[in-house]
Design brief:
heterodimer; A: 137 residues; mainly alpha; B: 136 residues; four-stranded mixed β-sheet; 8 strands; VOC family protein (chain B); Glyas_Bleomycin-R_OHBP_Dase (chain B); VOC_core (chain B); Glyas_Fos-R_dOase_dom (chain B); metal-binding (chain B)
Chain lengths: 137, 136
């Protein structure tokens, strides 16, 4: 078993750190503290995290915040409120990062999302591939 | 000339529960969630790094696709774990296994070295199973 599944304790600690980020992204997170809590030196922690998730903890935290921001915007939360809910402390850095990730500003994203939802309600068949629609008759 | 696979269907027992499994546990993103009238919902999700492939979470109900007894038979087969729907890929199998296990995902097989590679098998909330491998 040890051969097939090495260093399980390391994985558990990194996964715990990742899950911690997943549930505390809205707070002012200090990645040094997360590394400490996972019993790693900062650099060892960043290296292992990146090996496992393909992103540094900081990049990962940003991507989680952007994904959560998308959900808030979809639910109609204002851009400013969304910014603070997902843990950013500056509206300009939030807007800049959001645009860098999605090539669109938060307010335009929100507008486009709601237009699409409106269209889905009005013409749902447009969003379903032909084969499934045609089977109806 | 066929260019790509755009949609693939996974037959599920309950769309609400499947939504929770694929979105909240596996971390997939919702592509389209369109109510189609009473009892009809078009629900598709995408793996995080594959937004161009929509997985349709298709309820097994008597109607368009399943006629007569076919729905009940299909539900039973899915529940029994008859269908393996595919192979998912992650960066690191051990870490993904630990994370999904912590989120309550049931594994039929923990990460294991086989002659064809390193894999684990997990089951969705309906009974469909998947192989999980890591990027080589």
């Amino acid at each position: 078993m040890n051969d097939t599944y090495p260093k399980i304790y390391l994985y558990k600690r990194i996964v715990q750190a990742k899950l911690f980020i997943d549930s505390h992204f809205g707070e002012a997170l200090d990645l040094n503290n997360i590394a400490d809590e996972a019993y790693f030196s900062k650099f060892h922690f960043i290296r292992l995290f990146k090996t496992i998730y393909g992103k540094t903890p900081h990049q990962y935290l940003t991507s989680v915040r952007i994904e959560k921001a998308k959900l808030h915007l979809q639910q109609g939360t204002s851009v400013t409120e969304t910014c603070f809910l997902v843990g950013f402390d500056s509206l300009s850095s939030f807007t800049g990062l959001f645009r860098r990730y999605l090539n669109v500003s938060p307010s335009v994203y929100q507008q486009q999302y709601h237009e699409r939802q409106k269209l889905i309600k009005q013409q749902p068949l447009r969003f379903i591939p032909n084969c499934f629609v045609e089977q109806k008759d | 000339m066929i260019r790509k696979l755009s949609h693939v269907s996974i037959y599920v027992l309950n769309q609400d529960s499947a939504y929770d499994f694929y979105v909240n546990k596996l971390g997939f993103t919702v592509h389209t969630d369109a109510p189609m009238g009473p009892g009809m919902r078009w629900l598709t999700v995408c793996p995080p790094d594959q937004p161009e492939l929509e997985i349709t979470l298709m309820p097994i109900e008597e109607g368009i696709i399943f006629k007569g007894d076919a729905a009940a038979q299909m539900r039973e087969l899915v529940k029994q774990g008859t269908f393996g729907f595919g192979v998912f890929e992650c960066n690191d199998l051990n870490a993904t296994y630990e994370e999904l296990k912590a989120k309550g995902v049931v594994f039929k097989k923990p990460p294991t070295r086989e002659f064809y590679g390193y894999e684990a098998l997990f089951v969705d909330d309906s009974g469909n199973w998947f192989s999980l491998g890591q990027k080589k």
